């Protein structure tokens, strides 16, 4: 099913954006202005319509970017998501500025591929332990395709462990730092 919107609607929204005077930085995607302002707001920034420019490579002007803002105060008194976002941003900025972005990329990629591999293994474990559970979606080409995925992903994980052991262990350490918070919130029912 194709969806379309008229040019007038798309161009009209750009006219509205051009008159904006306030930008609210949010920790999650809000559904209303009130929710953005009251629940997820991290910062309020006074802006001008000239802060918006046409996105790179866009020929029709319907994608816009906002210029970098400086001296923005971020509210860290909110939820854990607020604090996590600020800490992650600060750490990422530090690694980027000190030339350690490659290490950050290795940490994240290693952990992501590792958990993807574990997800593939879970298909086999759950099918063996709980064969009677209805499965509304079946893995394509089971068991061959999931097995190839697990083997390929495991090869990437193993290669990273061998080639970059320090970064791999650091990536696991960053994941492990989240375990106390996980256990706290899973036990307290929050």
Which outline best applies?
A: extended
Total helix count? 7
List the domain count as a whole number: 2
N-to-C CA distance: 40 Å
Give the strand tally. Answer: 4
> Poorly predicted ranges (pLDDT <50, ≥5 residues)?
none
Structure class: mainly alpha
Helix content: 55-70%
Main sheet properties:
2 strands, antiparallel
The H-and-E topology, N to C, reads as HEHEEEHHHHH
Measured by DSSP, the beta-strand proportion falls in: 5-15%
Question: Which value, in Å, is the CA radius of gyration?
Answer: 23 Å
Strands of the widest sheet, in order across it, are: 1-2
> What does the oligomeric state look like here?
single chain
Explain the layout of strands and helices:
Elements: H1 7-17, E1 22-26, H2 33-38, E2 41-46, E3 52-54, E4 64-66, H3 80-97, H4 101-129, H5 144-163, H6 165-177, H7 179-188
Helix pairs in contact: 3-4, 4-5, 4-6, 5-6
Description:
The chain has a two-stranded antiparallel ribbon. It contains 7 helices and 4 strands. It has helices spanning 7-17, 33-38, 80-97, 101-129, 144-163, 165-177, 179-188; strands spanning 22-26, 41-46, 52-54, 64-66. With 190 residues, the chain is mostly helical.
What are the salient characteristics of this protein?
two-stranded antiparallel ribbon, 4 strands, 190 residues, mainly alpha, extended, 2 domains
